[in-house]
Amino acid sequence: MTKYVIHGGKPLYGEIEISGAKNAAVAIIPAALLVDGVCRIENVPQISDVTLILKILQDLGADVRTVNKSTMEVDCTGIHNNRAPYEMVRRIRASYYLIGALLGRFGAADVAMPGGCDFGVRPIDQHIKGFVAMGAEVDVQGGFIHATTQNGRLSGAQIYMDVVSVGATINVMLAAARADGMTIIENAAKEPHIVDLANFLNSMGADIRGAGTDVIKIRGVERLSGGTYSIIPDQIEAGTYMTAAAAAGGEVLIKNVIPKHLDCITAKLVEMGAEVQEMGDALLIRRMGRLSRTNVKTMPYPGFPTDMQPQIAAVLALAEGTSLITEGVWDNRFRYVDEFKRMGARIQVDGKVAVIEGVDHLTGAPIRACDLRAGAAMVVAGLAAQGITEIDCVYHIERGYEDIVRKLSAVGADIRVVITPEEEDVHNSHAV
Ligand code: EPU
């Protein structure tokens, strides 16, 4: 079992370089299934979710080569298998992108039902609705999603999404890139990684317009061919370090970011009294005095991201006054609150709303990362707390944060990895 041990209460000073975006990487790597030839993908984050999705592709028969720390070459030309097995697929939510990509490539897919962080019901009805509209027959049996087409090809269709869904938008884009004719997605999600996937596919020869708006038009092409593409920086990783600086205090330059993607996070931190200065592709964040309360409601992009909700809660737990957080995307994303309470936070949850009464200090405690972003928020809280915080189950955090301990140590945090060999390593037995 690996733990992080943090001696908190030290302000942070220095620079942090942001890695490639997890949620773009886990869509772009399966998109290589649609390409004949070598996809050279740069700015790939070194995180366990990426390792898993690459392993699944390798298992299907892809040729994967590591060029350097953040550059991979993926060649799916030789793949003839359209069945993705349960053992690995259940451990990563994004494995549902294999359905769209395999359907787009072979007109058939057999993929185990995906796993994922547990914050309520996570249906995939909108994904399935899209595939069916494009002519697929989809059936769920024995824990597998079986999707087939009559003549091996999907046909373009007009698809209205009943909810704004990142996953369904991406999955339909994947399925449509090589379908016959035009697919139009209405009420599409607009997250930066959707634009990144469209840019990746277009650079390989696809014809996708409107990504980043709520109507995306995909004219199917016969074939995609290899090329080189660099993944965008991770919005949520950058936002997490912004909240770390806001909670612990100090001055941190966050490098390799797209400031526009961070506007929603910057606006809230500035409203609370932090200073944020844009410097080209970097943001300087500075927090000296105590921050003040605010309200936050999570929404699809360009709203405040649900994936930043626990981290901003860690900051608000220490802000002056009473703040409200309304979770607008997931049913149950406040499971971390009980862990924060062990540190002295005053938070009450009623359904999708958390009422946070700011305290003047948190106290270190043993706590458990219950999912990826909750775990990141616990690191943020631990950095700001007085005394020692020990965080368990950090494999959740390592799914999405490259070198978090090294990056934080470089700005003066006292954070160490402690491995207790006598305990069972639960990493491989959990859905991530
Ligand atoms: N929804 C449906 N039907 C569907 C799909 C979604 O009702 O077919 C609902 C969901 O239940 C939820 C809402 O729509 O209430 C939004 O879900 P969405 O499909 O957008 O989420 P996702 O694609 O499963 C991705 C990210 C999540 C992030 C959400 C929202 C990836 C791999 N995951 O999930 O990221 O929280 O979008 O932005 O991109 C994370 O990185 O920690 C993470 C959980």
Structural write-up:
The strands form six sheets. Strands 22-23-1-24 form a four-stranded mixed β-sheet. Strands 2-15-17-16 form a four-stranded mixed β-sheet, covered by helices on one side. Strands 4-5-3-14 form a four-stranded mixed β-sheet. The two termini are 16 Å apart. The chain has helices spanning 22-31, 48-60, 86-89, 97-106, 125-133, 166-176, 192-203, 235-248, 263-272, 309-316, 337-342, 372-384, 395-398, 404-409, and strands spanning 2-7, 12-17, 35-42, 63-68, 71-75, 83-84, 108-112, 137-141, 144-148, 158-160, 182-186, 207-209, 215-219, 224-230, 250-255, 275-279, 282-287, 295-297, 322-326, 346-350, 353-357, 366-368, 388-392, 414-419. It has 14 helices and 24 strands. The chain is α/β, with parallel strands linked by helices. Helix 1 (22-31) packs parallel to helix 7 (192-203), helix 4 packs parallel to helix 6 and helix 8 runs parallel beside helix 12 (372-384). It binds uridine-diphosphate-2(N-acetylglucosaminyl) butyric acid. Uridine-diphosphate-2(N-acetylglucosaminyl) butyric acid binds next to helix 1, helix 5, helix 6 and helix 12.
Structural descriptors:
binds uridine-diphosphate-2(N-acetylglucosaminyl) butyric acid; 4-stranded mixed β-sheet; 24 strands; alpha/beta; 432 residues; 14 helices
In short:
This protein is an alpha/beta fold and 432 residues long. Helix content is 30%, strand content 28%.
Topology:
Layout: E1 2-7, E2 12-17, H1 22-31, E3 35-42, H2 48-60, E4 63-68, E5 71-75, E6 83-84, H3 86-89, H4 97-106, E7 108-112, H5 125-133, E8 137-141, E9 144-148, E10 158-160, H6 166-176, E11 182-186, H7 192-203, E12 207-209, E13 215-219, E14 224-230, H8 235-248, E15 250-255, H9 263-272, E16 275-279, E17 282-287, E18 295-297, H10 309-316, E19 322-326, H11 337-342, E20 346-350, E21 353-357, E22 366-368, H12 372-384, E23 388-392, H13 395-398, H14 404-409, E24 414-419
Parallel strand pairs: 2-15, 3-14, 6-7, 10-11, 18-19, 22-23
Antiparallel strand pairs: 1-23, 1-24, 3-5, 4-5, 7-9, 8-9, 11-13, 12-13, 15-17, 16-17, 19-21, 20-21
Helix pairs in contact: 1-2, 1-7, 4-6, 5-6, 8-10, 8-12, 10-12
The protein binds uridine-diphosphate-2(N-acetylglucosaminyl) butyric acid.
